UniProtKB/TrEMBL annotation:
Keywords: ATP-binding, Ligase, Magnesium, Metal-binding, Nucleotide-binding, Tricarboxylic acid cycle. This is Succinate--CoA ligase [ADP-forming] subunit beta. Its EC number is 6.2.1.5. InterPro entries: ATP-grasp (IPR011761), ATP-grasp_succ-CoA_synth-type (IPR013650), ATP_grasp_subdomain_1 (IPR013815), Succ-CoA_synthase_bsu_CS (IPR017866), SUCC_ACL_C (IPR005811), Succ_CoA_ligase-like_bsu (IPR005809), Succinyl-CoA_synth-like (IPR016102). It comes from Erythrobacter longus. GO terms for cellular component: cytosol; succinate-CoA ligase complex.
Length: 404
């Protein structure tokens, strides 16, 4: 599960991490009122969507030369103007795809005099089974280019969860960022705070970009501030964090994915034209692979799980068909805990309920397979049976081409 920037910063603040003052806003009026509570005279108005690259993003409804989703404002009037342009419009970034995301929330923060920008992130490294802390001196909007063109400027420090975060990890992070003196000490403290926040919240990813060094004040002192952050959480652990779960913004998610979660279905929309309904994540991935091997592309990942009811299967079928890009459906079921006759009843019921108009290929194997096949054969529907996974993929691709 993802959260907005302002929500992530509030979570970091609970761990003593320094962030600029700011206020979330749902309306233009709230944005202006939030700015009035800040010292000024420099403000930053930031679009809140679940995607990176907002600063370089473009609004569909605005002229090509309009500013992106992160803007400086030097007066309350400018805050108001930026808020009016952003709210309700669609921001397209490198991470949203061409469809973009509608901006429904803003975050107005205090401006910061920046001396240097850095990149600092934490994630779960599945290759090592450890938490990885990633640091770079090249923070800012072009970090993706750094990763591709100059990867040597990125340092990765892995942390054994059995050992936990140690002082040498903190020193390694500060060294990777090239910090010395008091800033080095601040960075070591920050690295430990971030690790604590990451593990305490069951994070999947915590990204600070940029982490900034402020210009020295009158006494010559500079500080490290978290200027922007993204956090995502392990959905399977949210039951331990009701306060974080309450931060979920369903308007940022695909409606079909939201509906699927209500039925405890694992559904992710993809860009292809063949809908997939499978039981088991591994079998689902194999099904998508073999569809691509046969020259087509899957429209979704959908795992109905091992104990689905007829009602749950019917709901899954309907969710697939809500995608207008779907030109055919492949149902691939291996019945262990799941019984093939239950799947067959669900498929028949859903096909009748939605008046199915696209080709449907069904491959069943396992518990009660003969009963399942008999239900499909006697349904009166144009369901194409398949003997195995390879046969099923070839048949659905052929059926879709025939119907085109």
């Amino acid at each position: 599960m993802n959260v907005h920037e302002y929500q992530a910063k509030e979570l970091l603040k609970e761990h003593g991490i320094a962030i600029p003052a700011g206020h979330a806003a749902l309306t233009v009026e709230e944005a202006v009122e939030g700015a009035k509570k800040l010292p000024g005279p420099l403000y930053v108005v930031k679009a809140q969507i679940h995607a990176g690259g907002r600063g370089k993003g473009k609004f569909k409804e605005l002229p090509e030369d309009a500013k992106g989703g992160v803007r400086l404002a030097f007066s309350l009037d400018e805050v108001e103007s930026h808020a009016k342009e952003m709210l309700g419009n669609t921001l397209v970034t490198i991470q949203t795809g061409d469809a973009g995301k509608q901006v429904n929330r803003l975050y107005v923060t205090d401006g910061v005099d920046i001396e240097s920008e850095y990149y600092l992130a934490m994630l779960v490294d599945r290759a090592t089974g450890r938490v990885a802390m990633v640091a770079s001196t090249e923070g800012g909007m072009d970090i993706e280019d750094v990763a591709h063109e100059t990867p040597e400027k990125i340092t990765t420090i892995t942390i054994d969860p059995a050992q936990g975060f140690m002082p040498h990890h903190a020193r390694s992070v500060a060294f990777a960022l090239g910090l010395s003196g008091d800033l080095n000490k601040q960075c070591q403290k920050l690295a430990k705070q971030l690790y604590d926040a990451f593990t305490a919240s069951d994070c999947d990813m915590l990204e600070i970009n940029p982490l900034v060094e402020t210009k020295p004040d009158a006494d010559g002192n500079a500080s490290l501030l978290v200027l922007d952050t993204k956090m995502s959480f392990d959905s399977n652990a949210l039951y331990r964090h009701p306060a974080i779960e309450a931060m979920r913004d369903e308007t940022e998610e695909d409606p079909a994915e939201v509906e699927a979660s209500e039925y405890d279905l694992a559904y992710i929309k993809l860009d292809g034209n063949i809908g997939c309904m499978v039981n088991g994540a591994g079998l689902a991935m194999a099904t998508m692979d073999i569809i691509k091997l046969n020259g087509a592309f899957p429209a979704n990942f959908l795992d109905v799980g091992g104990g689905a009811t007829t009602e749950k299967v019917t709901a899954a079928f309907k969710i697939i068909l809500k995608d207008p890009a779907v030109e055919g459906i492949l149902v691939n079921i291996f019945g262990g805990i799941m019984k093939c006759d239950i799947i067959a009843n669900g498929v028949v019921q859903a096909a009748k309920d939605v008046n199915l108009q696209v080709p449907l290929v069904v491959r069943l194997e396992g518990t009660n397979v003969e009963a399942g096949k008999e239900i499909l054969a006697n349904s009166g529907l144009a369901i194409v049976p398949a003997d195995d996974l390879g046969d099923a993929a070839r048949k659905i691709v052929a059926e879709v081409k025939k119907a085109a």
